[in-house]
Amino acid sequence: MHVSFIILLVGLAATATLQLASFIYTRIQQDRKAKELGCEKAFSPPDFGILGWTNLRKFLDAVNTSRSTDFLVERWQIMSQTYGAPVGTYRYSLLGIENIHTVDPENIKALLATQFQDFEQGPIKRAIVQPVFGDGIFGQDGKKWEHSRAMLRVRIEIWH
Asked: What are the distances in angstroms from CA 138 to CA 60, 66, 77, 78, 150?
């Protein structure tokens, strides 16, 4: 039993090390791509807690009281006050998953029209989003993502 416990600890340590290495590698790749595309540094909220746990708790409280939109608006207001300028885009880690939120018109244009191929949901977000929204624009990647954005782009052009 003693040997089994040691093997378990080694396995857990190896898994944690691989997860950390994967997170660091992904962050470096994202930062490199952002620099290549001329992106400005995304702000990070000041009070997300360890792995974003504090923010998750606050967000779930807001959802349970039908205040999720208010919560997100307040988040942008807090960051704008903290950084002394309007914050259009911010990034945060939530339980080890990197997230980026934006209301910046140029970022939305890039996401929906000019550089959509550079963005993807990823398998974890698709697994979370698809049961709620189905196989629509919010849960797609690749060719489906391209097709949905092309359809939306036509609608946006009609509105303007």
From this structure: 20, 21, 25, 27, 14
